[in-house]
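Why this split exists: single-chain examples teach little about how molecules sit against one another. For that reason, every record in the complexes split bundles all components of an assembly together and asks for one structure covering all of them. Below is a record exactly as it appears in the raw files.
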Amino acid sequence: MAQIEIRDLGIDYRKPKSNEVFSAVDNVELSIEKGEFVTIVGSSGCGKSTLLMAVAGLVNLSRGSIKIDGKQVTGPGPDRAVVFQEASLLPWRSVRGNVKFGLEMQRWNGGDLNERAMQMIRLVGLSRFSDYHPHQLSGGMRQRVNIARALAVDPDVLLMDEPFGALDAQTREIMGTELLRIWERHKKTALFVTHDIDEAIFLADKIVVMGRNPGHIKEVIKVDLPRPRDEAILDSDDFHSLRKRLRAHLAEDMSSMQLVKEVA
Amino acid sequence: MIVELFYRRQALILGTLSMIGLLVFWQIAVDAGLINPFFISTPSQVWTEFLVQFEDGQVAANVGATLYCFVWSMGLATVVGIVLGMLAGWFRDVESALEPFIWFKYSAPTVAFYPLFIAWLGYGTPTIIAIAFLFALTPIYANTLSGIKNIDRDLAKAARSFGAKPLDIFLQVALPGSVPVMMAGLRLGVGRALTGVVVAELFGANAGLGYAITYYGQLMQTTKMMVSIVIVILLGVILTQILSFLESKTDSWRVDSGR
Amino acid sequence: MADMTAETTATRQVSFSALRPSREAVVGTLAVLAFLVLWQIAPSMGWVNGRFTSRPTEVFFAAIDVFRKDDFLFHARISLTEFVAGFALAIIVSIPLGVLLGTSKIARYLIDPPLMALYIAPTLVLLPIMVIWLGIDMAPKIAVVFLGAVFPIVLNTMAGMSEADPRFLRMARSFGATKLDIFMRVLVPGSLPALLTGIRLAVGRAVLGVIVGELFVSQAGIGYQINLYGSAMRIDRLLVYVLIVSAFGYTLTILVRSVENRIRDWRSK
């Protein structure tokens, strides 16, 4: 059995004003093996973040089930940790304080908190900045802290919600390579949401392509590019053909959206 | 359906309930002898007394006198505050020159100048207007200043690239862009102008709500005094609500309204 | 916001290292000097009646007199006691109330309307009724200081708590934080700057409360002295006392603001 089993998942929202119910995600079936790096890609509004938050246990399910190692997900748990988009670092805590936050919340008893935090900070290459506060760091550095905070609690599954979405293209590429380097060490199961096609291919063992109205899975694509990977892979033929395939998917989504606009 | 309605109007319903509850509690506490009515009167007595004062024209006279001073002081503070604020926001040296005086005005207890104003302007209305004017001036000036000063640089750059002159930028970018902040200043100013008028009236006037409060206070006639206190509180709420409404109308002018 | 702070620190450093005052400081000082000179010569030129305006030099000598002979310390101690007692009381009451209102929606809906009404309304109008309740000694002034200070602190604490960044809350929940964890480690530190803003706004209202309370009716205190010299038309001494009160309010405001700014620096993006 796969590590993460998502069956017939549906998530509905009620619009606060009109009380209208709409479906953010519907009919989602997905299996993720232990140690797999899965990216979820799709245009905005396709429910990819909602799906991730559901796996994190931060969103209530309307239908279906999510199981991790055979256990039903009913809320957040120590087996999972989330790397958020920017601005989730507590501004009044130092880098070390932020990395310790998750450990404190989970009542970590695997030794000295400071030591554990410093170990993670070293892992993401920020030893010199452990006493800095978030506003003194660049966007890329902040996301390293975000990753360190999630890794510190030693989760089985790492959930990432467009963690590099706010970074510029160059930093984004560097962070991708850096993330793979860190991931290669422990090979934790990873679920990574993005709207960037190159990023989705570069990181993944498996790409989940999502479409909208309601959010659903259009296709699951296996990526057989060799590991460890570096930037050189971006120019390979396999990469190009994958990119072409994904682009076609997203373009289809865009044109259907325009149609809706014209009708409205 | 009723439950749903309750949730949607929760704030309004609970707020009204708590206000009514407060009044009922006040009435019952006094009726049951828990509080001496001499200290606080009761809602029913205040209402009866309000009707009496309304009949004999006292309410109209006091509210009229207070509003007269309020309108004058608020009007003066608006004109002076906005003009000074625009000058200081646009010319840095004007801001630097005014800064020490504004700071003094901000931290000095304006009412302490009361004897001075009486010497300069005479007893009553002119002194009341002057004090309330000083009360209201600070927020209006400060908000206008920051509105003009924190003009959207990208918009200004864009305007300049189309060949706009400084005056154009001031009139087309800085001024409209700072209207919402100015409105917030006016809203704060309204509350402070009313405070200024009423406080000045406490100290020396021949008419007005503050005068009535002191007058009946000295006679220890709590009920008569409470009528004017309640009217002042209501006036403050109503005037501020009007300004909040106007402020919300200009909110879409905010450059960052898309956030 | 962040740019502005950076800019001011930068200019401050530059002006320190070059030991040359900034243009703002020069213009500000010149403006004050011009005002003082004008004030000094205006009575002698016959533009104004000196009896009503006094002169800077007279105020200066009056200040020496006040500090040397007037019972300055006696009156200052009384006013200060009223201020501290009322302010301390306001802090003790307002912080728990603000926390309650900031964390419970029901409590907020229930208490918000009367609270807003009292925050907007001039609380100083309650002064005469405070005198009826509490007499003419320190108690009514303490009450007025309390009433002036309590609402800004309550409302700002409430706003700081209820407007906590939802992204922080979600992040904390993802790590399995309990309600108490979220309160202690996210809401409390997150609302500290707002609380300080409330305290800073409260300082001005509290100082005004002491002085107005004493002007209204009192037997001692700075406000009493101001009233005394006002009715005796001793403008020079009146101004000395007004300047003392200003300096007190100014210093306290600047102090709170500097703590506030230091804390706010954490959150600048």
